[in-house]
Amino acid sequence: MRISLVSLVVDDYDLAIEFFVGVLGFELVEDSPSLTNDGRAKRWVVVRPPNAESGLLLAQADGDAQVAATGNQTGGRVGFFLQVDDFDGQHRRMVEAGVEFLGEPRSEPYGRVVVFRDIAGNKWDLLGPR
Fold first, then answer.
1. What is the distance between the alpha carbons of residues 47 and 45, in angstroms, rounded to a whole number?
2. Which of the ends of the chain has fewer CB neighbours closer than 10 A, N or C?
3. Ramachandran angles phi, psi of 111, nearest 5°
4. Neighbour-count burial of 104, counting CB atoms closer than 10 A to its CB (0-12 exposed, 13-18 middle, 19+ buried)
5. Could you tell me if 79 and 123 are in contact, meaning their C-beta atoms sit under 8 angstroms apart?
6. pLDDT tens for the 130 residues of the chain, in order
7. Considering only CA atoms, which of 24, 47, 29, 43 is closest in space to residue 116?
């Protein structure tokens, strides 16, 4: 058993792809036309870090409830965790790309960490080795 995808509600498919692929360095696994349950056009967009099995299904907000949840899918808590081998290099690339960080990197018993916001406003931990 494994978790293959987690949905992430976003405002716009293309802006989200640019952030996750262009800024974070994820791979665009799939971007295919699809339909909603009631027959309206949508896209099936999957991104994931290189060599990862789990990925994100980028789901464009559809309806008031989803628009309201965009950027706050975990009630304001850090809900997503990006583990990297080169913490300083990844952090530097993200700073240069204008990613919003909520503090400075710090060392914890489990490694280096800093909180950042994705393109929708969700909080993530960028995690690296000690």
1. 7
2. N
3. 140, -170
4. exposed
5. yes
6. 999 999 999 999 999 999 999 999 999 999 999 888 888 888 999 999 999 999 999 999 999 999 999 999 999 999 999 999 999 999 999 999 999 999 999 999 999 999 999 999 999 999 999 9
7. 24
